[in-house]
Specification:
With 142 residues, this protein is an all-alpha fold. It has a single domain, classed as Globins (Globin-like, Orthogonal Bundle). It has six helices and no strands. The longest helix is centred in the last third of the chain and has 18 residues. The relative contact order is 0.16.
Length: 142
């Protein structure tokens, strides 16, 4: 694993290790976010150190790789929305996030059906994170 791997130094010992496929997806996703100019605004919404963020996402996504249905639960969606409320996530930020995720999926998930199913679920989550107070997008902000 690289220095940016998803194993945080303070990982709880009682949690199972994340699925390696989820780790690969998360690593590819954040590499895309770091590399792509269109993703600079959404990358700036994250902490500079992504160790904990990567760990949380990889552990969460591990269930998506092992479950027969990758549907988000209402409680999980509510927790994710709460975590992102401090950001102004408009359509352009959602689209940049999805672009990074689609590229990461293309790089790491070989099974076309699983890749498409995951992309559909990510699109639902990305839409749910979008700021719902206004459909109008302020100029210059995501």
């Amino acid at each position: 694993m690289s220095r940016d791997s998803v194993q945080p130094p303070c990982a709880p010992r009682n949690l199972p290790a994340p699925d390696p496929r989820a780790v690969q997806l998360v690593d590819a996703f954040y590499r895309e976010m770091d590399r792509q100019v269109y993703a600079h605004t959404i990358r700036a919404m994250h902490d500079a150190d992504l160790v904990d963020t990567r760990a949380v996402l990889a552990r969460f996504l591990s269930s998506w790789f092992s479950a027969s249905e990758v549907a988000p639960t209402p409680a999980a969606l509510e927790a994710l929305q709460r975590r992102h409320r401090r950001f102004h996530i408009h359509a352009s930020a959602r689209d940049a996030w999805m672009r990074c995720m689609r590229q990461a999926l293309a790089l790491t998930v070989q099974d076309r059906h699983l890749r498409e199913r995951l992309a559909q679920r990510f699109a639902l989550w990305a839409d749910a994170m979008r700021e719902s107070t206004s459909e109008a997008e302020p100029s210059g902000t995501p």
